[in-house]
Every structure is written in C-alpha cells, then in structure tokens.
Queue: 2 jobs
Job 1
Amino acid sequence: MEKNKIKLPECSLHEIHHDTVMRVGESLPADETTYDLSDFFKLLGDSTRLRILFAIDREPLCVCDIAETLSMTKSAVSHQLKVLRQSDLVRYRREGKNVIYSLADDHVRDIIEKALEHINE
Amino acid sequence: MEKNKIKLPECSLHEIHHDTVMRVGESLPADETTYDLSDFFKLLGDSTRLRILFAIDREPLCVCDIAETLSMTKSAVSHQLKVLRQSDLVRYRREGKNVIYSLADDHVRDIIEKALEHINE
DNA sequence: TTAATAGTTGAACGGTTGTTCAACTGTTTG
DNA sequence: CAAACAGTTGAACAACCGTTCAACTATTAA
C-alpha cells in the first residue's frame, strides 16, 4: 500500500542530475513552438488526411473526386478538408459547382518525402 | 427530410471525372505505406513525446531526469517512452538503477527540423 | 535481508477526434 | 421558378489516446 507522505519532485536530492535537468530544460524549445509543432504533425498523423494530400498532390481535385478516389463520403472528406484549410495545408478555388483543392505548400511534400525515406529504413 | 432512395457512388455518371479518379487512384501509395506513415506522424503529433525527443536529443537522460525536466510523473514519461521504444525512435541502456534513453535515429531530427522551418514560415 | 530509489505496467477515467447522419447553402440547368 | 448536383456544417456516437493511480519489478546500499 501507498504510504502517506509528501511527494517531492523526484531526483531532487541528486545534485549531479539537478544540473543536468537545468541544462537540458533551458535548451528546450518554447512551449508554444512545441505545441505548434505537435499540432502540425497531428495533421499528418491521420491516414485519411494523408491520402487526401497525396491525391491532390498528383493534381488538383474537386471534393467529389477526392471522395470517390478514397471511397469515402463527401461529408467525411469535407470535414478533413476544413481542417487542412484552417492549417493552410491546402488551397481551394470554386469552379462552377465544384470546389477544387490543391496542395498549398512544398514544405509538406518534402516532409512527407523524408518520412517515407525513414519508414523504408 | 431525407428521401428514401438508393445511394449510388457520387460523381459516378461523370465520365471525365471518372478518368481522373482512376488516374489519381492508381498513383496513390499502398494502403500499408499510408498507415505506416500516419502512424509515424502520430508519434510526433504529441507535445509530450516531442519534448522527450528534444530533451534526449541534447543528451542521453534517465527517466527520472526526463520527468523532472518536463515536470511530469515518471509513470507518464515511461508510458510515452514505451511507445517511442516500440517504434524504434529511441534507444535505451541500463546503468545501475537508471535507464538511459537517447535518440535512435538521425532521420527524426531532420524531419523535426524541416517541420520547424515550415511552421516558422 | 530489508529499505530506498528507479522504472514499468495494467486498469480506469476523461478528453479528443474521425465518421455518420441529416439538414443546410451555393451553383447551374431546365 | 424548381430540380439536381456539389459542398459544408453541427450534433451525436464510438473509438482512440494520454494521464493518473496503485501496484509491481529491478538494482543498489545498509
């Protein structure tokens, strides 16, 4: 059973480790940077969004064609496109009844390329 | 109200679009590749895991020091380290009572670097 | 062996998130 | 105008996921 005791920060009595903690702590990126970074990776961390990005990377596509290419409903695709729009990962323009989506950025292509190299060892 | 009717795949009657869908569909990466890729990005899509990676990128650290650096419990850190271990993103070795974690891969550093460039416009 | 420290683990809880459903807006055509 | 097609949206639901908690293992020192 757990004893009733005040919980001190662990390792707090180890002077050597404490220096390490200080040194490493100061060299970490700002919290906001880390959050922005993880938010960005979260966008790519969904297979549906990745497949959308792959598809419109080949050529600009309307929502309808993306949906059919991926065997998904327009609604599901549209929800994801909204997320990608709000993060400026895709561009869009209206053409008559259609809304055409395309990749907004070359960086994203590069990052995906690098990641593909990684998972292929 | 919704009408009762058979739902056909949308855009199915548009021959021009159908060609597009065929062409793009064939050029997409294999499903398994996409899943592996999204799984990889999922790993980076969490600020805790990113901060762990940043920390042990500076220098190899024991779990205790990581926990204190990030102001988290050892348990929470250990759970995330397990995920990173299972994905071969970190290495570890035991040193007496401590288990020292370090970055396993240079690719990851590169990808994070690229992503940082991206979010900084 | 016992106590203390370091680390791991499984279950559970709560928040997040992707898809579905139904309804809506916007555009073109008859 | 109305009908048809393209796309968007909010609510709801289920599945997923990160942290906490309590207990456990492992190593070292007394």
Note: The helical segments of chain B are 15-27, 31-44, 47-58, 63-69, 74-86, 106-119.
Job 2
Amino acid sequence: MNTKLIPPQATVKRLSIYLRFLNSLGKDIKMVSSQELAKKLALNPAQVRKDLAYFGDFGKRGVGYSVKKLKEQINKILGLHKTRNVGIVGIGRLGMALACYPGFEKKNFKVCALFDKVPKALSPKIGEATEILDITHLPKVVKDKDIEILILTVPVEAIKEISDMVMTSGVKAVLNFAPFKLLSTEDVHVHNVDLSTELEFLSYSLNLKDSPKEDPAEELYGIPTQLL
Amino acid sequence: MNTKLIPPQATVKRLSIYLRFLNSLGKDIKMVSSQELAKKLALNPAQVRKDLAYFGDFGKRGVGYSVKKLKEQINKILGLHKTRNVGIVGIGRLGMALACYPGFEKKNFKVCALFDKVPKALSPKIGEATEILDITHLPKVVKDKDIEILILTVPVEAIKEISDMVMTSGVKAVLNFAPFKLLSTEDVHVHNVDLSTELEFLSYSLNLKDSPKEDPAEELYGIPTQLL
DNA sequence: AAAACTATGTGATATTATTCACAACAAATC
DNA sequence: GATTTGTTGTGAATAATATCACATAGTTTT
C-alpha cells in the first residue's frame, strides 16, 4: 500500500466527487473501473487509481473496484459515517437555502441551530432547529449542542464583528460564504467559498475568448488564448 | 515584463480575492504592498508579486502598488468592465438567493432571465427579470437576450434532462451548483461548485483531528486511524 | 494450462505552482 | 550626494500535483 505519502488536498476533494458519482449509479452496477470513473469525471485514470491507492488497495487487478466497497471506504475516509452537528449563522436567503438543503442530512450533517441578528420562531422546524436564535447566544449554544461546524452566510458588513465570536466559540471548522477571506487559526479550520469569485473566473475565461488579440493593448496583459 | 508565461489558473482565482480586498480598503489608503496583501490573505508576498507581474508591471519599487490603479487593472483583466448577461435556471431557494444577491450587480453581472419548470410572474422584478420563464423557452431567450452565462441551481434529478438544453443553447459559460460534475465542452466552459463537497472536505479535516495520534508514525502517514 | 485480455498499483517522469533570494530601483535621511 | 530603508520583479530552487508506462495479477478464452 501507498502509505508513505500523505494524501494531497486535491485528492481528498476528488474523493467527494467520486463518492457522488458512485452514489448516482444504478443498483445493478456492481463494479467500476478507473477508466470509467475518469471518463465520466474528466480526469486521468492513473490519477483516479493513485487517489484511491493513498488510502488502501481497494481494487482488484483485471476487474476494477467494487462500487459498494468503494462507497463504504470513501464514506469512512471522509468521516461521513459520523454525524456532525452544524450551525448556520445569518439566516438570509442563502442561509435559509442551505438550512433547507436536503443533501446535508443525507451526508450525516445535522443542522441543529440557526442564528441571526433577528431571532424568530420557526414552524415547521428546519432540521433540528425550532427557532432562529439571537446571535449573542452562539458561544453557549455551540458548546451545549456540541456544534462542530458553523456555516457563515452573513452579509459582508457583519463579518468583522461576528468572526471573533465564531472563531472563539469552540467550533472546529467554519464554512464561510461571506465575500471576505476569513483566515484559519490553530484551532479552527476555515474554508472560504465565494460565489462572486466563481463568476469572475468565468468572466475571465469569456474575456479571453472575446479578445482574440485584436487589441494591441490587450497584448500587454499577456492574456493566454490557449488557456481555455 | 513577465509575459512569456501564461498565468496559472490559481493566479486568476487569486486576482479576484485581491480585488475584493482592495475594494474593502478605506478611501484614504492609496498604496498597498505585496507584504500587506499577503498578510491579510494568508499568502506569500512573492506569490502576490508574481501573480500581478504576469499581467504587467503594476508596482513601484520601494513604494508598492497604487490601490486605484491595481483595482482598475484587475477589473480589466477579469473582464469586469464589460456587462455580462446572466440567466438562472431553477428558481428554488438557492436560485432565488443568487438572483437577489447584490454582489453580482456590483460586478457588472446582470441577471436578466430566470427559468423554472413552473413559470410565474414576479413583482417586484428581480434584476432585469419580471417573470420566471418556462424552461422550454431557454434556448430562444438565451439568444434573444444575449445571455453569456447560465447559473444552474436545479435539483440533481433534473440535471440530466436540462443539461442538454443548456449546453446547446449557445451560452458560453455555465456555473453549476447541482451536485453532479457537468463537463466542459469545446464551446461551453463549465465550472462546478458543490456545497456538499466543501462540507465533506471539512469533515475529512475533523476526522483527522478526531483520531488521536497515539503512534507518532501516524503523523507521517497522515492516515485516518480507523483505516489502519 | 497457455495465451490473450483487462485493469490495478506504482516508480519514473513531466508539469504546474510556490517560495527563496537577490538585483534593481525609489524614497527618505543624514 | 551618499547611505539607509523599503519594495518590486524575477531567475533559480523547491514543492506539489498529474501523467506516463509498465510490471503485476485476476479473468476469460482456446
């Protein structure tokens, strides 16, 4: 087994993609090859094999990988067999959309508290949460309900005042959707998702196609036409 | 100037982060150094300089970068000076949240059509859209309204039937939020954002921390305890 | 049971991305 | 105007990641 190296971050993210693909397969499909996985996910077959080999010899030569076994293994590697308690901070449209997202429950993420500046009762309840709690209660609730992950969907103006409370609350991980790069600390692992950044990347790609070097000014920027 | 190399994808994504940071600075801050940018964004100063140098010599030695000039340049590089027409497909909670997201307008992304299985009038209008259009009208509307980017926020069950229509509609780029890896083609550049994957990556990190490192060798191997 | 096929696991190699280290330059101070 | 301080831009070194290529092993066919 290939245990001499620690798995790259990129590998871990792909595991999640593999799992999703495996879950989408019909029940009659028992085996899958690196070839197939690679083709459906626009990856290199060797990369798929290497990714999986970081965690064990899951495949059978000449045959492929057992779908059932692979799903189990990836679930285990990603820690999806354990339930994680999740809180959501900032219940605007996006926060509410995430709170109601059925995919979380399926993956063992339990939404068990919602926080906002404006508290409010909820009926019906969302996940385990029967009300939107005042944000000042966050530190206590995180401890009481054993919340490991907080999802931040507050407006960017609020992030500064809220981030202190969040980072010192005892939570272990934060998924931040506010358009502000929140930094990880020793104790809290932060992952930032920026919706604008994603669109801006697309805009860059479009911009490349738009200007096929007609404009000499554009040349200055060394914009690569071949990138996409 | 460093125009001999094409800028890495990673560089382009960071430009967006730089821009966001620059926009958050007070009006009185005229200059900024790679040191400062790096510190606030948890990056290496050399990386910041190199990223910027791919596109031109924007800085002044001994001084730093002009905030105003840098903002202008990044806006131009990312193509944010041009307005892009955007359509959103699947107006559930997430689709609606994105449709109403004020950040898009600020970056020159104009939401000009919403599509769903269930059409509906809208008042007040959202962006440029006065109604939710029946999804069957998508190909025509994309052409008529000159939509360059489609954002997909349909449920995963619908993605297969909808993706064909989307990919052949003449749109140039797609931002897909459905938990399914949609592949780019020659004509359409697809970017996938998966909310579950983000959470699952955090789960993996928590899982590593959970397993106490009894054996010092474990630290080297980076393998979750339960797999050994 | 040998040959032909198929698919994994992985060492070697190639590619991409990051960081170091320093020359080149700008401004401030003596 | 020489010296000190600060900061960029970039070649070189390093690190991370991806791909190639093939030995190894399971399966099927003859």
Note: Residues 212-228 of chain B have pLDDT under 50 and may be disordered.
